[in-house]
Fold:
Amino acid sequence: MDGAEWIETLLADLPATEASDLILEPQDDGSLVAKVRCQGLCRELRRCPPGIGKVAIARLKAIAGLPAYITEQPQDGRIDGAPFGIDGDCRFAVLPTVRGGRVALRLPALGALPEPQELGLPTAVLDALRAQVRSADGLVLLTGPTGSGKTTTIHSLLRELANERVDRQILTIEDPVERLLPGIAQVEVRAHRGDDFAGTLRAALRQDVDVIVVGEIRDQDTALTAVQAALCGHMVIATMHTGRAREAVPRLLSMGVADHLLLPALRGVLSQRLVRLIHEPCRGEGCGDCVGGYRGRQVICDYISCTGADPIALKNGAAVEQATMEQQIEELVASRRTHDDERLRVLA
Structure:
């Protein structure tokens, strides 16, 4: 089997793994180690024979429509998953290393989009979120690491908003667009053509929309534009990469957003993570239908309602949380729905 055949076979086998990501690590002997991320954890899937790794990467680039001769620069692209039995497009990125190109492939979201009440959020938190995203204006933040379910939470809330009122104009700015939502305008930010979140957001503000989703606040320009939009009659929902809800305000202040603008705009902050659940049929012992005794995941979250909150506490990262991850994972451990080791992994 040559490199091209090996990579095509690997892609065709991915749906059965139920993985969210594929990683290809180049080795000293010219081989590749293929790893998949399942339920938040990485494991080795297989290795290609020595010496064919570069050919495999070149074939992957060709499938993504990228020039294979570029090997010293990072490249980003997209792969149509349909020929390989994958439902949707896969985001594709190559990073040069001293051993060759390292590949990260993000697979499209699996399964049906859950309703908001099926997300697993505490009832009081969900009720508060639903009320806040229906406000005429303001900023709602969702934070958490990559793969913590932020996009699923936002998409579920948006679908409910769109179905509730046909006159509500909703626009999302995403990188990438992972799921198509009927009745919602979705814009994909593509860095290779010069797009960025801040510029696309400014353009979106001229589109007569009620609700705007900013896929990620990465820099000062995007942060300032999002806050100004929230103060000027738009409901803005945005994500950030902070570990806990209380860290969001200090992070935005450190980006240069003035507190007299941020605090009046901010409605609430949700930070979430996903906890693996024990596979009930095998009682967590491990079987062919689970991964290491786990199957399925449950959201846990921190939540801060910023309306009426102490501004000094918010700025100092000491705001009172209406829900905490610790409380929720303790309940999961006590009810034997997950193990104590999972608590240490998620909250360490």
